[in-house]
Amino acid sequence: MSKWEIFKIGDVCDVIAGQSPKGEFYNSEGLGLPFYQGKKEFGKKFISSPQTWTTSVTKVAIAGDILMSIRAPVGPVNFATQKICIGRGLAAIRARESIDKNFLFYYLFYNQDNIKGNEGAVFASINKSQIQNISLPVPPIEEQKRIVEILDKAFEGIAQAEANTRRNLINARELFDSYLNNIFRERGDEWIDEKLGDISENLDSERIPVTKSKRTSGKVPYYGASGVVDYVDDFIFDEELLLVSEDGANLLARTYPIAFSISGKAWVNNHAHVLKFNDISLQRFIEYFLNSISLERYVSGMAQPKLNQKALNSILIPIAPKEIREKVVNNLDSLKGNVNSLETIYQRKLEAIAELKQSILEKAFTGQLSQ
């Protein structure tokens, strides 16, 4: 193993703390230098295309500089790909001749979750002096380049495996969504349309919101717009019900289901509508239908999207005969279970890939790749 030395980043790199120009100099027409304020436009390794430019240049980073996010989150890094102006959410770290910039990047990437202040606490922000004081284990330059070559090759294979896994995860979700949408597009002649308000009982008046500070912890789920948000010691409802999001960005973004069935003891706040049906197969059928359609035409407000009770009641529901809808619900439940199992497998694989990255980097910076 070749000899390693411990330096401070400030001993072997130049650190440039960002400084934001006045907003009046910003533009989106490409005038001046590209301007980056923080981590928002970070890519996997290289910063993405600029969205903002500035004609008043304060602090400059050049191609090959390592950009570090220095305001929450602290630590993530990217490479600059051209001459840019950096704002107060970034610092540029420029390696001198004794340091391979890719070696430095891998080290900072490896330690991005451990960037600490002088007293050992993770800072919501970090300053130039604290970056300069970060310890850096440094082998000879030839060894640095050899380690980078090994890491590049390993990470190339890992990146492909990660991309394939993420694609498989997306495919699994798209398979279910496609099947779900086809069911309601290919409805039979015997299906009839009913307004949701005519086939359900609305129990919104029984909801009771309770601020977190006034809740008593327990085992009863406390539901909000997108599911369980807490557990309390009392309940309002104790039956089969369908909850539908009343407000929040998810009504349009649809990151989570907007309709979900619950059973047993529950407390519901005023961010979810509460619907009761006289037939569980109808409830589950409508749950799947609501999660398959866009609610944009029923939602009011863009900054604070809201699905009010009147709009909810007006949603037209295609109702299949009981025998058909029971079969549909059973098929969807079965497919959803299979998809959930696949998603769990793929998520675990992604976690394993992340752990593998850290394991390889740990070996790199403890000298184990030098043996």
Automatic annotation (TrEMBL):
InterPro entries listed in its UniProt record: Restrct_endonuc_typeI_TRD, Restrct_endonuc_typeI_TRD_sf, Type-I_RE_S_subunit
Sample GO molecular function, one term: endonuclease activity
Type I restriction modification DNA specificity domain segment(s): 1-159, 189-344
Matching Pfam families: Methylase_S (PF01420)
Domain of life, source organism: Bacteria
Protein keywords: DNA-binding, Endonuclease, Hydrolase, Nuclease, Restriction system
SUPFAM superfamilies recorded: DNA methylase specificity domain
Protein's UniProt keywords contain DNA-binding: yes
GO biological process, one term: DNA restriction-modification system
Family: Belongs to the type-I restriction system S methylase family.
Quaternary structure and partners: The methyltransferase is composed of M and S polypeptides.
Name of this chain's protein: Restriction endonuclease subunit S
